[in-house]
Amino acid sequence: MSTRHSFQNITPVSILASAEEQRSITLADLLFFFKLRWHLIAASAAIFCLLALAYVATTPPSYVANTQLVLSPQLGGTSLQRTDVEDAFIEGQLEIVKSNDVLAATVRKLDLQDDPDFLKSDVSVRSLVSTTLTELLGDGESNSPAAAQAGAEGETPEANNLNRASATLGTLTWARRIGRSSVMEISASGRTPEEAAEMANAMAQEYISKNLQMKSDAAKQYSDWLERLVTEQQRNLTEAANNLAIYRANPRDQYRLTELQSQADARRTLFENTLTQYTEARQRISLPVSDATVVSPAVAPLSKARPRSTLIVAFALSAGFGIGIIIAMIKHGSDRRIRRKGPLADVVGAPPLATVRTYKSLKPIAAAAQGSFTRLLESRSVSSPLKLEELTTVMVGLRRKRKTIVGVAGINPGCGATTIARELAVQSAASGARTLLIDAVPAARALTDTPNGLGNVIDDVSGLDAALRPITPTLTYLPFGQYTGVSPAIRLSSHRTELSIAKMKQDYDAIFIDLASVSESSDVNALAPELDGVLLVVAYGRTTLDDLTNATTGLALVGADVLGTIVNRSAGA
Torsion angle of alpha carbons 267, 269, 274, 278, nearest 10°? Predict the structure, then answer.
């Protein structure tokens, strides 16, 4: 087949569709993810919730009171001009509310500079964050109220306390325009409802006082200027009247008389208008009118404004769940341990043959220290103490495929391969088949309960009958025995021993060989090509996909037939 024919059916659409299929996540995947990682997600949410509750419990409550004022600027011009001027006027009034003069006057009115608790409350989270961001993002100089807390050098303690209290009040109060209206709202945050209302109302009153003072000062300056103008115009009017009276006593030119009369009348009119404006300016000095009027004074709030317990806890729970899910996804994505059948089937090429729900990793099956198979020998019974019914289907399938001699090996030590091999042999014998169970695990030689076994008869079959341990008429057990040098499994694969696999197949209907794990010994790779197949045992949540891939790749390279995998669901040996 040419390269052109190999790729002629591949299109960009098919590539995208294949990639989309690989990226698709099913509902079962999500349910499995949450079932497996819910502890981590719940722990993250619980930690955030506890932190939020601790913050709510340790943070002193604060109350916010609001005073509303309506601004009534005296503006002229067209409607569009008035709108622009009104916006600028209101913005200017908002800045006046936050000015140091208004803050200092409010502090003096409420005697906050002499309140130690109020002076200590200036170290707030908001002020600290604001100061830090200003120092990091600014040019090294800070004009915020918090920067004034340190005070200038040479200030008296009273002035320093006033500056500190003003800076604190600046962080606890704020002003805003409500929508596009001419209503301004002054808000204050206090330790008690009454304190919050007092600060908001006092600040509004001091702002109005500041507004009146500014208008009074402006009117006084205007009045002083008008006073000088009135004096000058009065002098000019007197001069014009005198000139008219002199010329009228001896009139020589009628036109000149009319001109002097007009000048005197004009100066009298200008003088009267200026005098009227001067009188009005003097009145504004004595009775100024503020541009702002309180329409809704602050009252003591009924509930606290901060900390918002419900909102904080809800946000903490949401953040905890979100971060927990992210951490769980990272952990889930990096976890290569076998927990599902899908990835296992992708490696082996077929789903697992069985999923055993009982985990019992036996050391050597004939070890007196463990005693499990020893008790089986003594009782001469084929009843399974573990009742692994899931393996019945595996045993029947092997028989139908005429797999007479089968090796059972774990991917890693402690996967429970010895238990699986013993159970398969017990169930095979119980079905009436002549079954031989061979212990070929080198690590078990130090714990074997008999000095005579596979290692002793591999080169001298004369002692085979003595080494075999009949359990029932259909079940025979060949312990590991003793050996020196190369392991018996590798010796059997050499075809240079008296004991051969072909001879054993003639005497038994089914032979199960308990082999050492793939990761700790090369016995499996050496003996597997001589067997009808190998069953691989993986430990649920312990064996990784990388270990399974390395094992199956190694067995495929030597030509072994991997019959399938058995998942041993367990939490540990």
Answer: 130
In a domain, 36, yes or no: no
As given in the structure block, the two tokens for residue 141 are 């100089």
Single out the residue in 296, 313, 332 at which a domain terminates.
296
Q: How far, in Å, are 60, 183, 297, 496 from residue 263 at the CA level?
A: 77, 50, 56, 147
Q: Is 315 within a domain? A: no
Let me know whether 249 and 388 are in one domain: no
Do 267 and 185 fall into the same domain? Answer: yes
Contacts of 385 (CB under 8 A, 6+ apart): 372, 375, 376
State the Cα–Cα distance between residues 187 and 306, nearest whole angstrom: 14
Nearest Cα to Cα of residue 346 among 534, 560, 552: 552
Residues 374 and 445 placed together within one structural domain of the fold: yes
The closest alpha carbon to 418, from 491, 352, 486, 359, belongs to 359
**Cα distance between residue 510 and residue 407, in whole Å:** 11
Question: Pick from 460, 454, 461: which is nearest to 480 by CA?
Answer: 454
**Measured distance CA(296)–CA(285) in Å, rounded:** 27
> CA quadruple 33, 39, 42, 43: dihedral positive or negative?
negative
272 and 364 together in one domain: no
Q: What is the CATH number of the domain that holds 380?
A: 3.40.50.300
Looking at the fold, whether 285 and 406 belong to one and the same domain comes out as no
Residue 230, CB-side half-sphere exposure with 13 Å CA sphere: 15
For 52, the token pair is 């939020």
* CB distance 437 to 355 below 8 Å: no
Q: Would residue 427 count as lying in a domain?
A: yes
Q: Please tell me the distance from the alpha carbon of residue 39 to that of residue 104, in angstroms, as a whole number.
A: 55
3-state secondary structure of 178: coil
Helix H or strand E segment including 166: helix 157-172
Cβ pair 135, 72 in contact under 8 A? no
Residues 114 and 213 in one domain: yes
pLDDT at 138: 54
Q: Torsion angle of alpha carbons 267, 268, 273, 276, nearest 10°?
A: 140
Count how many domains the chain has.
Answer: 2
Cα dihedral 137→142→144→146 (10° resolution): 100
Q: Is residue 275 part of a domain?
A: yes
Give me the count of residues in the chain: 573
Single residue among 296, 315, 332 that ends a domain in this structure: 296
Mean pLDDT per segment of 10 residues, for the chain of length 573 residues?
Answer: 42 39 69 86 94 89 91 63 76 89 90 81 51 52 44 67 87 89 90 90 90 81 82 84 79 76 85 82 71 88 85 92 92 78 69 63 38 44 49 76 86 84 86 88 55 80 84 87 80 80 84 88 87 88 85 88 80 40
User: Six-digit token pair at 1?
Assistant: 């087949």
3-state secondary structure of 473: coil
How far does CA 101 lie from the centroid of its chain? 45
Same domain, yes or no: 153 and 244: yes
Range of the domain at 260: 64-296
pLDDT at 371: 42
The reply to whether 233 and 129 lie within a common domain is yes
- The answer to whether residues 47 and 321 touch, using CB atoms and an 8 Å cutoff, is no
Question: What is the reported pLDDT for 114?
Answer: 84
